[in-house]
Every structure is written in C-alpha cells, then in structure tokens.
Amino acid sequence: MHRFANPARFLRLSAMLLPWSAGATVILLIVGLYLSLFGSPPDYQQGDTVRIMYIHVPAAWMSLFVYTNMAAAAAAGLVWKHPLADLFAKAAAPIGAGFTFVCLVTGSLWGAPMWGTWWVWDARLTSVLILFFLYLGYMALVNAFDDPQRGTRAGNVLLLVGIVNVPIIKFSVDWWNTLHQPASVVKMGGPSIDPSMLVPLLVMAAGFTTYFVSVVLLRVRTEIAQRKIQTLRLGAAADGAAHGAPGVTS
Amino acid sequence: MTDFLAMGGYAAYVWPAYAIAALVLLGLLAATWKGLRDSEATLKALESARPVRRRVRQQAESTRAETKPDNAAGSPAGASEG
C-alpha cells in the first residue's frame, strides 16, 4: 500500500487548495470578462474583434503551459516512477486539449473578419493544430492498453517526443512568414500592448490558470479513485487464487 | 445595449468566440465533476464490500501461521496488507 502514501498526502493538500483555486477562478473570470467586454477600448484597426484576443491568447498560453507541465510530469513519471506524475498527465490532457480547441476556434473566428480567411496552412496555425492532435493522440494512447501502467508509459514517451513542438509554436511567428501577428506580450523589451488591453488579458490568463488548477485537482482525485477501484477489483478477482496477485499491478 | 451586442458589426465573430470558450470550460468542469462523483461512489461500494473479505483472509492467514510458524514472516499476503 506504500504507493497510496503519496496520493493520501495529495488528497489532503488538494482538499485544502481547491476552495481557494475555485474561488479565485470565479472572481478572476468575472472581473476578466467585465474588463474584456466593457472595460477595454476597441482596437483602432481591428475594432471590437480585438475582444476575441482576451479568450484566444490566454487559451493559446494555456495550451502550451498545460502541455509543458504534462511533459515535465511524464519525465518525472519515467525517471522516478512517481505514481502521481502519471496521474497528473492523464488528468491534465483533456483540459489542455480543450484549451487548444478554444484557441483554434477563436483564432478562426478572429481570422475570418481580420485576415479574410478562416484558416491558412502557415507555421503557427499548423503547429498548434499538431499540438491539438498530440493531446488527442496521448489520450487515445493511454487508454489503449488493458494495463494502465503500459498505457501511461507509452503516453509519457509521446509527451516527451512532442515537446519539440512547443518552441516551434512559440517561435513560428519569427521563423517563418505568416499572417499571424508576432508576440506582443512575452517578448524581449517588455510588452508592446497598451495597459488597457494588457490588464484584461492578464486577468483572463490568471483565471484560466486557476481554472486549470481546480479542474486538474478534481481529475487527479478521480484518477486516484480509479486506480484504487482497479486494485480492489484485481484483488477481489485474485481472492482465493495466488496471494501475490494484487501486487502484480504495482 | 444594442450597440454593445452589435460589437461594432462583429457580433457574429465575437459572441461565438466567448460562447465556445464558455461551453468548453463549463462542459469539462461538468464532465470532471460527474466522473469524480461516479468513481467515488464505485470506490465506496467496493470498499464497503472489502472488510469482510479481508477479515476472512486474515483468519485464513492466522490459522496457517499456527500450523506452519516458519512460513508466517515471509508471507506475501501479509506484505500486501500493509
């Protein structure tokens, strides 16, 4: 049972953290939505379509942030066989895929009026689409094995291989010609965006981050419960047979 | 108000963007919440069925330990109980 020692501590910590992250999410998203829709000016070139940015850009940041965290967890899971690391990556994947989907769709809705096209096969858009498929591929792979250990190991390898896509996405707007505008917040020399637009952007990004923390805590709790269920079921199945059988899964 | 809803003529692009974000985030939250409730209910049901079986096994262990004392220390079942 030693492998439940860490999850037990995690369950205590997550129970303490969850009310705070959930409360922060509600407040940040209410303030962020107010600032995005009422409290910020329309862009002098793009008019009110600039308000799509307050969803699109934080979602894009989250898609990279979540993937990077999953890849770090995958490394920890492979190197130290940390059971929580595997569970974290598995729990975070649907959230990351969700953010990537939001990023792609809102980008399309922004591109249609401003670029005159819903989609172009340029480096930025294509690499983000690949990121979306990496999320989906990971989710399919971890669930493709009867033995969850084998599934997470295969998934962890995929996550580590796919990490090469993250810097490609970040620098794609500098390396290749594209319709997509270059970075205006995370760049050398500081943000070049006006505070009246930067503040709502950062508030929305903070709200998305606390949303991710809250939902991933719930999902890791679900994964821990699922592992316990599996252990109990295998134990029940092996009851009366060899005594060592429940330990085989560990 | 109608001015605000019109979004400077871009209502057809701005509002769907916000709607899709809300739909995805709330949908994920709902699915996560349901998944957690379901698995915790299943776990509870399994665990409430479990103590009986454990007690039976422990009784079996102790009777075996009485008959074969030198086997008791290295019993794999004893290790998995901890």
UniProtKB/TrEMBL annotation, chain A:
Gene Ontology biological process terms from the UniProt entry: cytochrome complex assembly
Transmembrane segments: 20-39, 59-80, 92-113, 125-145, 157-177, 197-218
Family of this protein: Belongs to the CcmC/CycZ/HelC family.
Keywords, sorted A to Z: Cell inner membrane, Cell membrane, Cytochrome c-type biogenesis, Membrane, Transmembrane, Transmembrane helix, Transport
A cellular component term, taken from the record's GO annotations: plasma membrane
Membrane topology of the entry: Multi-pass membrane protein
Pfam families noted in UniProt: Cytochrom_C_asm
Residues annotated as domain Cytochrome c assembly protein: 8-180
Keyword Cell inner membrane: yes
Function, in words: Required for the export of heme to the periplasm for the biogenesis of c-type cytochromes.
Places the protein is found: Cell inner membrane; Membrane
Signal peptide segment: none
Name under which the protein is recorded: Heme exporter protein C
MF terms (GO), sorted A to Z: heme binding; heme transmembrane transporter activity
Organism name: Azospirillum doebereinerae
TrEMBL record, chain B:
Superkingdom: Bacteria
Keyword Transport: yes
InterPro entries (alphabetical): Haem_export_protD_CcmD, Heme_exporter_D
Localization in the cell: Cell inner membrane
Lipid bilayer topology: Single-pass membrane protein
Cited Pfam families: CcmD
Record keywords, A-Z: Cell inner membrane, Cell membrane, Cytochrome c-type biogenesis, Membrane, Transmembrane, Transmembrane helix, Transport
TM segment ranges: 12-33
GO cellular component: plasma membrane
Record keyword Cell inner membrane present: yes
Annotated segments matching region Disordered: 50-82
Record GO biological process: cytochrome c biosynthetic process; cytochrome complex assembly; heme transport
Family: Belongs to the CcmD/CycX/HelD family.
PANTHER family the UniProt entry points to: HEME EXPORTER PROTEIN D
Function: Required for the export of heme to the periplasm for the biogenesis of c-type cytochromes.
Name of this protein: Heme exporter protein D
Species per Swiss-Prot/TrEMBL record: Azospirillum doebereinerae
